[in-house]
Amino acid sequence: MKIYVAQLNPKIGDLARNTDKILNSIERARLEKADVVVFPECAISGYPPEDLLLFDSFIDEMENQLQRIIKSSKNIFVVVGTIRKSVNNNQKNSLFNTAAVISDEKLLGYKDKTLLPTYDVFVEKRYFESNDQQKVFEHKGKKIGILICEDAWAHVEKLAIYEKDPVVDLEKLKPDLVLNLSASPYYYQKKDKRIDIFSKVAKDLNCPLILANQVGANDQLVFDGHSMFFDKNGDLTVVAKGFVEDHLLIDLKASYTKYSYELDHLKDLYSALVLGVKDYFRKLNLSKACLGLSGGIDSALVLCIAVDALGPHNVLALSMPSRFSSLSSLEDSHKICDSLRVELMDIPIDHLYQQYLDLLSPFFSGKAFDTTEENLQARIRGMILMALSNKLGNIVLSTGNKSEMAMGYVTLYGDMCGGLGVLNDVSKTLVYKLANWINRKKEIIPNNIINKEPSAELRANQKDSDTLPSYDIVDKVLQGYVEDHLSLDQIVKKYQLDSILVKSLIERIHLAEYKRRQGPPGIIVSKKSFTKGRYFPIVHSWMS
Amino acid sequence: MKIYVAQLNPKIGDLARNTDKILNSIERARLEKADVVVFPECAISGYPPEDLLLFDSFIDEMENQLQRIIKSSKNIFVVVGTIRKSVNNNQKNSLFNTAAVISDEKLLGYKDKTLLPTYDVFVEKRYFESNDQQKVFEHKGKKIGILICEDAWAHVEKLAIYEKDPVVDLEKLKPDLVLNLSASPYYYQKKDKRIDIFSKVAKDLNCPLILANQVGANDQLVFDGHSMFFDKNGDLTVVAKGFVEDHLLIDLKASYTKYSYELDHLKDLYSALVLGVKDYFRKLNLSKACLGLSGGIDSALVLCIAVDALGPHNVLALSMPSRFSSLSSLEDSHKICDSLRVELMDIPIDHLYQQYLDLLSPFFSGKAFDTTEENLQARIRGMILMALSNKLGNIVLSTGNKSEMAMGYVTLYGDMCGGLGVLNDVSKTLVYKLANWINRKKEIIPNNIINKEPSAELRANQKDSDTLPSYDIVDKVLQGYVEDHLSLDQIVKKYQLDSILVKSLIERIHLAEYKRRQGPPGIIVSKKSFTKGRYFPIVHSWMS
After folding, report:
1. Which residues of B touch A92 (CB under 8 A)?
2. Catalytic residues of B, which ones?
3. Is the domain A2-259 a CATH 1.20.1250.20 member?
4. Catalytic option among A21, A42, A129, A149
5. Which residues have C-beta within 8 Å of that of residue A24, sequence separation ≥ 6?
6. Which fold has domain A270-460+512-516?
7. What letters, b where the CB count within 10 A reaches 16 and e where it falls short, cover A520-532?
8. CATH number of the domain at B2-255, please?
9. Percentage of chain A surpassing pLDDT 70?
10. What interface predicted TM-score (ipTM) does this complex get?
11. Are B227 and B38 in contact (CB under 8 A)?
12. pTM of the prediction?
């Protein structure tokens, strides 16, 4: 039996064109003499369709598109992720996240998702009902079991939150092959875990397992693809490409050797960020971006990502010096633009800055220079970027990193301006690692940018370290408090940090919530981002 | 039997002080010789505690505070909403949204919530497990049943989404009194529905019913209080005050007459907006606000709300005319500030505007005046407001209304600047109704502001109607598409509108999603806001 795995990049809600792609893959599978073709979770709608699911017309149109797939399934067995409306046991209208199982122009049935993730970015219980029943479908003498994404993960990873383990129930049905339809978003170092989990599931089921994973970025989520085939010993043998559409053709009769791989987590992280930018623009029918280059490492990194995502001719860089900008920052900005062949505009802002100071001085008399004046500079820059964006159509890329967003070390409506926050979910520690990874073969980001002490250059001789502890400490508290939900005491103990310092950093994280709430959507590359899937009150007074 | 109903205004996460208030109410109940004292849902944490629930330390501290309540319950029966950790039937750690039932220094047990709303702004299945079991607790010969918020609503309103009806199950236990612990957020005209629902529940249970509802604003949600007592015939007999802390003392032996009331929905709406502003500031330990006064109706209305919430001395208004501002707008701004005794600063922006035009002209050569130049003016105003805010500590109130937010007829980082979007969830239709309601006795908002044709005054002779259909039509599409999830065809049919027009408005709603995503948090006063509880992709291509 040959199985064709179609790793597609759907656009949310583009039901007809997503289905066109599905039909095209079925045709290719037929040409490859495949017996079975399998698609990712929610392949017709794209994942996650979010509140589009609240429109009856949306659900009905998915059903129409499914009929097209059924009609195109002559002589082939198709398993495709979609969403179906049905009445549940109590005669209530319900939606199910499901796999439609089709053979030779007939719908054989559905295998509904059992475990509905409702944590972090996932809100499946908002839309779907669970179906506990596990099933196998017979085709050419083989019993094919189907699991949808989380249904397999819970076997290893998330048992603590679910009452059922679909893998255990499926095992009783003695499948000969198991297909997992997934839309499993990328996060840093997730591939390790994914391999471990599916390896164990295949081994425990004692049967070959195929993972068909969605690829592509939808809003803030990036799906990395990397569809996989595990043999019945749980050995990973075949892996599809990451971050692009691809397909696998698996022959169950063939003997595969164990896949040998070296995980390159930084390469994956960089690829995820590039795809996040690329798909955001492509799927919005946009092509051109602009960004402010400060001479610092964050904007340099975003420039590299933008160039790889959109091409150098589609990226416009702006250098907008004030009286506090250093000469070396300007030189470094020119240097990186030269090497990446990106157009750089110089628009000095000091004259405008002085105009604001003059206009406001009657209201500020006697008050010292403070963050007000710093923010003015950042906001003038934001306004200029937005004006160019409005006039020329280049979408602004925001360059703040996750550590800064945590600390509130960013200016709302200033450097936070932008259609997409490229590094919103990348800690400063990872920013440095990525910069060095980019320079692994040759100096693309000027070493001076990487090596200089971080500074916002919004007042004379400013350094980030004037108001922040080292990013190493910030990032530990970020990990402990935001990602792992540890208490103050637990963080102090785990990282051997000073309690007063940690408390002050947690307070800063709380205080900056109002800024982050108005930040640009960011590309999610961690297990817990600020930008989506974190529901934190602005007004509260909790301190653990 | 006498029941003391404590309608409290908790602050999210302020566990010790919320508990202090609870203990104080118990003391007062004792002085009033009450037998029973009942508190709202999640009274210890405040509702909704959101992701604070992911910290074990938070759950543990709620337990500590519950112990304080138990120790203070000498000779009294206390029912208090809290959250408890327990193992479920499958030995998994779970959280329950629950009522702790306490008598005479002993914890008698818990009544867990059965129905967990996970739609709109509610995400309870993210945190809680459901407990299907209904119970009664005996006290002084009476069987007291307990329902938590949604557990009663579903009996009438939301049966379609749940498999259980806790009211029907509770009825079998023949309670003599039912307590409903609620944190039921306000929306426009909800009181009608709430009365209808609880009246029917009391009648069907054939027993007296007490609703103890939270009051106060937490972030974007406003809880209106209005705790109620229904007799066993389902007649509403006693109602607590709305939008303030209050208590009721209900004597089950007394005979009450049917409560006669006239619903004043506009008064409630206005009160909700005032409380939304007041609690946002108070709970953040802030007192001063500022806003831009354009001479239009939206900023005039926000000024009235701010003055009622914070006092005129805490509100600073800014008039920031450009070359396109009309003289009458300036005069109207002065007039309303005079009548409300609010300080008005005049900061003309035209000089700055010209500086931007000059600076940018080399990059804009040959391009016509467009929204770029309009946005520049709005953004200069936003920057000036933010600079004053940064320097003086006045929080910026944003004045855009829901119809504008729907259409994208707002400038991101311009008039969308602000810590709180007071009218984010108020349609233009309701803005007019509220303005007229404010002027019901005397002219507070100059009639000229109410009667003039809406204009953003960002280009010569501009009118909103240049680029938008009448707000009457916008608001119908807003209702149909955003609140009711109707398809294009359904909207066309229901409101007898032109299909091409409706399609263009839906497209505008989609296109403006990226702006709204970066808008300030708004005060929610409708059944479906843009600002919270609407999960809509930015990148998609659905058109119903």
Report:
1. 160-163
2. 41, 113, 149
3. no
4. A149
5. none
6. Rossmann fold (3.40.50)
7. bbbbbbbbbbbbb
8. 3.60.110.10
9. 99
10. 0.96
11. no
12. 0.97
